[in-house]
Amino acid sequence: MKVKTILISQPEPKAENSPYAKLIDAQKIKVDFRPFIHVEGVEAKDVRQQKIDLSDFTAVILTSRNSVDHYFRLAEEMRFKVPDSMKYFCQSEAVAYYLQKYVVYRKRKIYVGKRTFPELLPMIKKYKDEKFLLPSADVLKPSIPKLLDESKLDWVRGVFYKTVISDLSDLRDVYYDILVFFSPSGIESLLKNFPDFKQNETRIAVFGNTTVKAATEAGLRIDIQVPTPEAPSMTMALQKYVEEVNK
């Protein structure tokens, strides 16, 4: 069956020249964007219940832009003036660059990993005397606490934000040829919003092993799986698939 419509379960990219824009132009198909999940901040009182005092920490481990936003949001809500001496350990250049929204970059102690948490860890381990705060979501990769514990670091996790399922009830009677998922939470959202969902001819595209596992356990048929050596990105995989079926 030919593909005319695709729903991406994420916010629309802000860049005009995004790979999705090129896909739309090249294949003359309709691509819609709709976040199946969204992030909500945890209130300051809930953080206090976690027995977290922001003034106790000399370093912050930032794994995403959400962790940056919610660390500084809570600092403001809790009337904590982040000292200039605070050390920031950022998982990637993108996170470090985003940090400039809140601090004067050149005047701060900022340490940047390449891309993954294991790549950042050696840098963190050089500062064993620091007391580290890890602002995180309610769902966290188990490997991160495990690596920090194994490194015998003085660290505390703070749940500063949580992933919440979005209301998709307005999509009940809207059908797409391909649904695209990037996380197990997206699959969970689909099934919570549409418990009677029947896949039928709808193609499912998934990114990453954990999403594959969630989709399989939900009884969904996976038609496009990413990454692969031939298609490391979702847009490349979609382009390849649409080219083949729309001949």
Described by strand count, sense and barrel closure, the largest sheet is: 6 strands, mixed
Mass-distribution shape = elongated
State the end-to-end distance: 10 Å
Number of DSSP-assigned strands: 11
**CATH-defined topology of the domain at 41-161:** Rossmann fold
What does the radius of gyration come to?
A: 21 Å
CATH hierarchy class name of the domain at 41-161:
Alpha Beta
- Strand order, sheet with most strands: 3-8-7-4-5-6
Structural class assignment: alpha/beta
What fraction strand? 15-25%
Write the layout of secondary structure elements.
Layout: E1 5-8, H1 19-27, E2 30-33, E3 37-41, H2 44-49, E4 59-62, H3 65-77, E5 87-90, H4 93-99, E6 109-112, H5 117-125, E7 131-137, H6 143-150, E8 154-165, E9 178-181, H7 184-193, E10 203-207, H8 209-217, E11 224-226, H9 234-245
Parallel strand pairs: 1-2, 1-9, 4-5, 4-7, 5-6, 7-8, 9-10, 10-11
Antiparallel strand pairs: 3-8
